[in-house]
UniProtKB/TrEMBL annotation:
Oxidoreductase found in the keyword field: no
Lineage of source species: Bacteria, Pseudomonadati, Planctomycetota, Planctomycetia, Pirellulales
GO biological process, one term: translation
Sections of the chain in a coiled coil: none
Protein name: Large ribosomal subunit protein bL32
Family indicated by similarity: Belongs to the bacterial ribosomal protein bL32 family.
Alphabetized GO MF terms: structural constituent of ribosome
Region of interest called Disordered, as start-end residue ranges on this chain: 1-25
Biased composition (Basic residues): 1-18
Signal peptide: none
UniProt keyword terms in alphabetical order: Ribonucleoprotein, Ribosomal protein
Pfam families: Ribosomal_L32p
Length: 58
């Protein structure tokens, strides 16, 4: 069984994990009401998506 010869340093571990952090989702304005929403998601404010009303809102 393969076993590391030496302990991996904290610096080296941190460098490897530097790309694992989550990034904030990109927001864009809804073309109908102008509220900010994630792309490819139904607008929570007006229920509009891809040029049509998907969810009825008050």
């Amino acid at each position: 069984m393969a076993v590391p010869k030496r302990k991996q340093s904290n610096s080296r571990t941190g460098k490897r994990r530097s790309h694992d952090g989550l990034k904030a989702r990109e927001l864009q304005a809804c073309p109908r009401c102008g509220s900010m929403k994630p792309s490819h998601v139904v607008c929570e404010n007006c229920g509009h998506y891809m040029g049509r009303t998907v969810v009825e809102t008050e």
